Structure formats: structure tokens, C-alpha cells
């Protein structure tokens, strides 16, 4: 439970000081001469004891006649930042739970099963947020989505089923990084100490959350493009459409490079180039007549371009790192 207080800055000798609440001193069993740690960020200072151990959050879940509901609760606990997840599950549904949970477990980065005996399943998140920080995860998501955009369109242009399969595999990795990012950002919002150690402002928490969401959706759109692949697809698509699609692939790749520079380096002057390319993509693919398959591809390409611009717009607030 957090409590806000307003305290007056006072002068003591040649220094300015602020008194520490007596209740907090007593609760932490501090005395004169003890050392404390100051975590200094842009708009706040956090005071903590040097001996304070990491507080681990634990949640207890129980099977209530629905495996899907239980699995969704496990995912929710992961996203909410719980370190330990203990599940009470009957032996009669253990096998079914294992089958269904195996479909989503790989998306929960760092989640490991420590104990599975009798009616109890004990899981723990072992990944260190300081070792895998949100900004580094976003950069990795950026790289994967760039590859997915290129490979999904190339799979259509070259009728390459193996390339389309690679996009599916990349989507699973992006989902994993997305879930992890949501978990860390939520944990940071709930724990000012973690937020300070990660060097994140409140604006960063909002922007990173939106950026992760948009990147995950861009990769979903690439997956939708790749899902159109089939034997003989080139015969189903107009030659002019394929030429325009190839041009659009280059424009989307250039967009993604510029969005990276805009978002991470705050090179906002590149926004104008981005807008020009988005308009060109619309013009290139908007032919007089499109088949249903061509229209599906066109819609996904257009959505990727739109979300690239949405990502770039986040750059109006400079990053702290």
C-alpha cells in the first residue's frame, strides 16, 4: 500500500534536507548512521533500504471444470507480473491440461515448471527483467517484423511455401516477446523501483506498450499475407498486381528502417518520407479490379503501412535511452 505525503524542504547547515516519515523508519528498523540507497530518475527519487530483498508475487489458481479458463488465468497471472504461479489441478484432467497448456507455454518467456506432483503444479518465472530490458525486446521485435514483412511478400512473389512457413515460426517468437514486454511494463507500473532500474518514464511505459502491440499486429498482418500462399498462386494473381506488390515490398522495408530511426533515435524529420511511401503504396496496389485474393493481400499491406506510421508518431516524446 502506498501513501502520499507532502513534506517541506528544510535547511540544515549548508544543505537542504527532507525528513523521512517516522513510521517508515520504524517499519524498516533503521537507526542513525544506517545507509540507504537513492534511485534517481528524471522526475523522482526513490529511497530504499540496502537490505531490502526482492518481493516475489505469488498467486494460487484452482481448476473449476474448465481447462481453457484455467489456462487463461495462468496467462493472466504471467502478464500481471506474478513470479510464482501455483495451480491446484485434479489428476483426472492433468493429461488434458498438459496437451492444451503446451500450445501456449512457449509464448510465456521464462516460465518454468518446478514441481508437478499429486494435485499441485508449481511454476516460476526465471527471467531477469534487468537482463532483458523492454527497449532491447522492442528492437528484437522490430528486426523480426522487418524480416516477416519481406519474407511474407516474397513467398507470394516466388511461390515459396517454405518461406511462408518461416513467417509462421517468426510469429510465434514475436508473440513470446510481446507477452514478455506486457509483463515487464505492467510490473514496472506497479513497482517504482523496477521502473527506475529499467530507466523508464511513465511516458515510456505507455509508448512501449503501444509499440509492442503495433509490432505484434504488424507481424500478424505479415502472417495473413503468407497464409495466402498455395501451389500455383502465381497463376491466380494478375501480372501487374505482382509487379506493384514487389514495389510495395521495397517501400514497406524502407518504411520499417525509417520507423526504427524515428522511434529509437527521434529522427522525426523522416515522418514526411514515411507518409509519401504510404500514399505510394495505396496508389500502386489500387488497381481498377482486384480479385478477392488480391484484395486480401492489398488490405494487409495497407494495414502494415498504417501501423508503421502509428509507430512513428510515438516518437514525439524522446526516449530516455
How is the secondary structure organized here?
Elements: E1 10-12, E2 15-17, H1 22-27, E3 36-40, E4 45-49, E5 58-62, H2 67-79, E6 84-88, H3 94-105, E7 111-117, E8 120-125, H4 134-157, H5 161-190, H6 192-197, H7 202-226, H8 233-236, H9 239-265, H10 271-285, H11 292-313
Parallel strand pairs: 5-6
Antiparallel strand pairs: 1-2, 3-4, 6-8, 7-8
Helix pairs in contact: 4-5, 4-7, 4-9, 5-7, 7-11, 9-10, 9-11, 10-11
Main beta sheet, described? 4 strands, mixed
Strand content: 5-15%
CATH fold descriptor of the largest domain? Methane Monooxygenase Hydroxylase, Chain G, domain 1
Q: Report the structural category.
A: alpha+beta
Question: What's the CATH superfamily of the largest domain, by name?
Answer: Phosphate transport system protein phou homolog 2, domain 2
Number of domains: 3
From the alpha carbons, calculate the radius of gyration and give it in angstroms.
Answer: 25 Å
Strand order of the largest sheet: 5-6-8-7
Low-confidence parts: 317-321
- End-to-end distance, in Å? 30 Å
Q: What is the top-level CATH class of the largest domain?
A: Mainly Alpha
Order of helices and strands: EEHEEEHEHEEHHHHHHHH
Our count of helices gives 11
Helix percent reads 55-70%
Overall residue-averaged pLDDT value: 87
What overall form do the CA principal axes indicate? flat
| Oligomer kind | single chain
Amino acid at each position: 500500500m502506498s501513501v502520499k505525503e507532502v513534506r517541506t524542504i528544510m535547511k540544515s547547515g549548508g544543505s537542504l534536507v527532507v525528513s523521512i516519515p517516522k513510521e517508515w523508519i520504524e517499519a524498516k528498523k533503521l537507526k542513525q548512521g544506517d545507509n540507504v540507497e537513492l534511485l534517481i530518475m528524471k522526475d523522482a527519487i526513490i529511497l530504499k533500504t540496502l537490505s531490502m530483498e526482492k518481493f516475489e508475487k505469488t498467486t494460487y489458481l484452482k481448476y473449476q471444470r474448465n481447462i481453457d479458463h484455467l489456462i487463461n488465468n495462468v496467462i493472466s497471472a504471467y502478464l500481471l507480473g506474478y513470479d510464482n504461479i501455483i495451480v491446484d489441478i485434479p489428476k483426472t484432467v492433468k493429461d488434458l491440461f498438459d496437451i492444451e497448456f503446451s500450445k501456449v507455454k512457449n509464448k510465456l518467456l521464462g516460465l518454468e515448471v518446478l514441481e508437478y506432483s499429486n494435485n499441485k503444479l508449481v511454476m516460476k518465472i526465471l527471467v531477469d527483467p534487468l537482463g532483458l530490458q523492454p527497449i532491447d525486446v522492442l528492437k528484437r521485435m522490430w528486426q523480426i517484423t522487418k524480416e516477416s514483412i519481406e519474407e511474407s511478400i516474397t513467398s507470394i512473389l516466388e511461390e515459396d511455401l517454405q518461406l511462408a512457413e518461416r513467417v509462421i515460426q517468426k510469429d510465434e517468437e514475436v508473440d513470446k516477446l510481446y507477452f514478455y514486454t506486457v509483463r515487464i511494463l505492467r510490473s514496472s507500473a506497479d513497482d517504482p523501483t523496477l521502473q527506475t532500474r529499467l530507466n523508464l518514464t511513465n511516458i515510456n511505459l505507455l509508448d512501449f506498450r503501444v509499440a509492442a502491440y503495433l509490432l505484434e499486429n504488424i507481424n500478424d498482418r505479415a502472417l495473413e499475407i503468407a497464409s495466402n500462399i498455395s501451389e500455383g498462386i502465381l497463376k491466380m494473381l494478375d501480372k501487374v498486381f505482382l509487379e506493384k506488390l514487389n514495389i510495395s515490398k521495397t517501400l514497406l522495408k524502407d518504411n520499417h528502417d525509417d520507423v526504427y530511426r524515428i522511434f529509437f533515435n527521434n529522427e522525426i524529420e523522416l515522418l514526411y518520407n514515411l507518409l509519401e511511401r504510404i500514399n505510394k503504396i495505396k496508389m500502386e496496389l489500387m488497381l481498377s479490379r482486384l480479385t478477392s485474393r488480391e484484395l486480401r493481400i492489398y488490405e494487409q499491406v495497407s494495414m502494415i503501412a498504417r501501423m508503421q506510421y502509428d509507430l512513428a508518431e510515438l516518437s514525439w516524446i524522446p526516449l530516455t535511452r
